[in-house]
Prior knowledge:
The protein is an alpha/beta fold and 450 residues long. The protein folds into three domains: 5-150, Alpha-D-Glucose-1,6-Bisphosphate, Chain A, domain 3, CATH 3.40.120.10; 159-367, Alpha-D-Glucose-1,6-Bisphosphate, Chain A, domain 3 (3-Layer(aba) Sandwich), CATH 3.40.120.10; 371-448, TATA-Binding Protein (2-Layer Sandwich), CATH 3.30.310. It is 36% helix and 22% strand. It is built from 14 helices and 23 strands. The chain has helices spanning 23-37, 53-66, 79-88, 125-134, 152-160, 182-193, 224-233, 260-274, 288-296, 308-318, 343-355, 359-367, 383-393, 434-448, and strands at 13-16, 43-47, 71-76, 93-97, 106-113, 117-118, 146-148, 171-176, 197-201, 237-241, 248-252, 256-258, 279-282, 300-303, 322-324, 330-332, 338-339, 371-372, 376-378, 398-400, 405-408, 412-418, 425-431. The strands form four sheets. Strands 1, 2, 3, 4, 5, 6 and 7 form a seven-stranded mixed sheet that branches. Strands 18, 19, 20, 21, 22 and 23 form a six-stranded antiparallel sheet that branches. Strands 9-8-10-11-12 form a five-stranded mixed sheet, sandwiched between helices. α9 (288-296) links the parallel β13 (279-282) and β14. It is globular and about 65 Å long. The model has no long low-confidence stretch (mean pLDDT 97). Belongs to the phosphohexose mutase family. GO terms for molecular function: intramolecular phosphotransferase activity; metal ion binding.
Amino acid sequence: MKVDETIFKAYDIRGIYPDSINEDVAYKIGQGFAKFTNPVGEVMIGMDVRLHSEAIKNAVIKGLTDAGINVVDVGLMSTDMLYFGVGNYKFEGGLQSTASHNPPEWHGLKMVEKGPAPITYEHGITQVRDFVISGETLSSDKIGTVRKIDIWDDYCKHILSWIDVAKIKPMKVVLNPNFGLGGKIFEKIVETGGLPIEIIKLNFEPDGNFPKGRPDPFIPENRIEFAELVKTSGADLGITWDADSDRVFFCADGGLFVEPYFLNTVLIKQMLVKNPGEKIVYDPRYTWALLDAIKENGGTPVISRVGHSYIKEILRDQNALFGAESSGHTYYRDYWHSDCGMIPPMQVLEYLSETGSKLSEVVAPVLGKYFISGEINSDVEDKEGKMNEIAEKYKDADVSRLDGVAVEYSDYRFCVRPSNTESLLRLTLEAKSKELMEVKRDEVLAIIRS
């Protein structure tokens, strides 16, 4: 069997079905997972709503059980349910059949060890890759068992445990799960907790065809109809997820889309009010608003490289309370050091209920203080050489090489870093005025693309 090695990415496995990932490859991945993790108990597996996710899932199950591994099949779930399931029930590891926010022809797998501890390119994915390429097969005298369970009830109760349900006031909320499971999961949480939330649905019913294109709210054009519905419906809030529901984004009343960078200041405050003096993890893409929120609320900032494996490692090593990325991922020590797409909406609902504020009012001060470029991607052949060139040009600034190159002056700062998953350089820049942001954005972009 010829294997496309490019499907083995930095954090997961992704490829086009059936050309580069299919049932045969998935079977071998299941076997490779068994060899790498060598589980002594049950392994959990679930799937997203993609058209061939069930076929991929079933092939992985066959690979695991042929190797003698006992499997728990939980059916449809979000990716953050993978972390919940493995952590809550103490399984020996887990897999999710998903390709996250990629277009419908993409399929793949996310994997964790017991804990749950992330499986990354350096730790696990290359070993699984090498097994798949080798053509080796695992067999066992005793075929593993498969049992099915439903984890949705326990998951919803856990999410509700993060807030004081009695404090939640009536609100009208637009939900846009981009045809993934996020809306159904949120609806189930609302029903379980008896929350007084009126739900307005957009792109709500799960559909693995993703009929409106790539199911990713991080793409600005995917926000337009969502923000418009929040505005025209008079909703108090809008919540949107990517297709596997582990990244979450918000729209304030009046149709104002709130970048995760700014929304994270609300979550940081909410976390530190309940847990004073704790450490908060952030990354170098945008920093000023986060540092303000951390320091103003008595926390200690800890910087990390971009990427879930690095942030989870810092959370564990530093015993940090919370981590926030500008990509929409939010991480919690007490959620098994993992990211979750449903805790942030609960926290925002609680914050708005407690303060009686509108989200637009809450974020207005920080929106008027820092101005951001958004993430701008460029194809660059010699990425390391270009980052060295930038570091040299701006050597009079405070320069960090923790992750790519980060340059900081008193009135603007930026980060240029290579993508962990694509052959791109990514620019993010913030400044203390809109005009300066635009000037410096264009200046740095011209250097990157020269």
